[in-house]
Amino acid sequence: MQNIDTLRYSYSGFNNGLRLDLLSDGRFINENYLFSCFGGGERKRVFGTYKMDSINLTLIPEKIELIEYPEKMELKPTKTQIKYGIDSLKIKTEFKVLNWETNKYLLSEFYDFGWSTDKENDFIRFADYVNNGFEPETSGMYLSKRSKDSVKSEFNIKKIPEKWQKYFLKEPITAKIKSLKKITNPNDKEYFWWEIELDKGSKDGMNKRLSMNTEDDMIFFDIDSVLNNRSFGKYYMPDFTTEKYPIGTELRTRWK
């Protein structure tokens, strides 16, 4: 009997996830699942064959198995098996293979809109996680195979195809608070937030995909608007005080 080994790449989010199993006999199983907090959901499995070398992976899909779970738990799920080809059920089939020490990634250039209203793909999402210091400890919505070994080296941007390198920061961005404004909800006087202006803008590499945080990691927010020499974000937690975090407080995209 043939011993079939499996190489698994995956990501897991809140009530959703994706697994890609590459079997040693040349077959693959791509499983995507999405569930609602109120019950119900679906699980899609795509089967086929693949070709892989040290830098590229190509999936050749053949058939689909779609399992739909009703909101009412007492009802049985329905299973449908069809030949691959329906546009709404298609998957990414072309990937670049990327290694970062013992971590492995499969990144596709295909633009998808399933998780965001922004035009983005795996390379852009991977850049976000590298820029904000989440990688290599935590991965985003792209396929990865993580190792238990800690990754100690800086990411080598030359491993990324040249057309996507512009999304990666060469150095972490350091900015200081330029102004602070407390905004109170007119419909609920007890609800407020802080609008924070930073002294770095697009000319310094700032963009709306970045997150900024203080060295103590207590103040953190996403950049929501960018001008040439300044940028803005909102902080909603009630623990913010101008005494502890005054004008001039330093924030960075990454401290380590």
Discrete helix count: 1
Name the overall outline: globular
Q: Tell me the fraction of residues in β-strands, as a range.
A: 35-45%
Provide the low-confidence segments as ranges: none
Mean pLDDT, to the nearest integer, reads: 92
Question: Radius of gyration, rounded?
Answer: 22 Å
Termini gap = 50 Å
Biggest beta sheet summary: 9 strands, antiparallel
Structural class: mainly beta
Series of H and E elements:
EEEEEEEEHEEEEEEE
Count of distinct strands: 15
State the helicity in percent bands: under 10%
Element layout with pairings:
Elements: E1 6-12, E2 16-23, E3 27-35, E4 41-52, E5 56-69, E6 78-83, E7 94-100, E8 103-107, H1 122-131, E9 143-145, E10 174-185, E11 188-198, E12 211-213, E13 220-226, E14 231-235, E15 250-252
Antiparallel strand pairs: 1-2, 2-3, 3-4, 4-5, 5-6, 5-7, 7-8, 8-9, 10-11, 10-15, 11-14, 12-13, 13-14
